């Protein structure tokens, strides 16, 4: 924009006491009320953080250089900023705010940095993992609504590590996707596949996020799990994972993803299951019922939670496109 098109309020002699209000003023000329509100809150909290910690120039430069390194190590298959968001608990917080769950529905978990869009579409019963060193398992799932009705045609993304605790994209010599697939639920809401039993693994800790964990005396390990993502128009987008009961990192997940309702058990296949699904008797079987929520219910819950939470904070807001903005009426 040309300088004559911008109405800049007079600003000079800025200091600790007046810099925040002046920054908010100059950021408040946008025609987008949501952007104005988000920037006002961001600036206010950032400035308060600096004041409360008496942030030094040396510390602030160290933080900026840290963020530069986070960007430099990121690639199209390694998203270090997602890792940073994960280990700060922000990923789980944002998901919980944006995708509230009513009772009896499947809870969300973190996406993680290794989801890709190159997974092959497979038929029910296909083998997702080509890792011959992994322990074979059969996964039998249904997708239903909160009333127990099956949901047909849900796109399901599934991904897991190999038996060494690495995702396919972490192998430089890989020749295509493995340990991941896309399926669709049938008329009974069923999808099933063959894979390997998940194993615990450390998140990548050879970069700046790993260095931060070390400074905080935190470990980088995640408990054994399998990722799932569900998509269908009219239904709330669900990103979740299933975690194996009894894993040594069940209660100390480096990215805070474990929830009690998502902890599962693998049981041995009985003779009937083995014959029906073409697996060895006694091999591991995971059965799980996923419950999705329709978009309207999610919107209602998100609106209700937002107004309640902000009222408790003493903020007068209204909702615009289901997102809070200041209520200036």
TrEMBL record:
InterPro entries: 1_2-HQD/HQD, Catechol_dOase_N, Intradiol_dOase_C, Intradiol_dOase_core, Intradiol_RC_Dioxygenase. It comes from the Eukaryota. Residues 32-104 form the Catechol dioxygenase N-terminal domain. Pfam families: Dioxygenase_C, Dioxygenase_N. Its cofactor is Fe(3+). Coiled coil: none annotated. One of its GO terms (molecular function) is catechol 1,2-dioxygenase activity. Residues 112-292 form the Intradiol ring-cleavage dioxygenases domain. This is Catechol dioxygenase. It comes from Cadophora malorum.
